[in-house]
Amino acid sequence: MDRFDFSPLFRSTIGFDRLMRAIDAASRLDNATLAYPPYNIEKTGEETYRLTMAVAGFAPDEIEVTVHENSLLVSGKAKKDEDETRYLHRGIARRAFERRFSLADHIKVVGASLSNGMLHVDLVHEVPEAAKPRKIEIVSGNPQTIEQKEAA
Question: Which domains does the chain have, with CATH numbers?
Answer without folding.
Answer: 1-35 (no CATH), 37-129 (2.60.40.790)
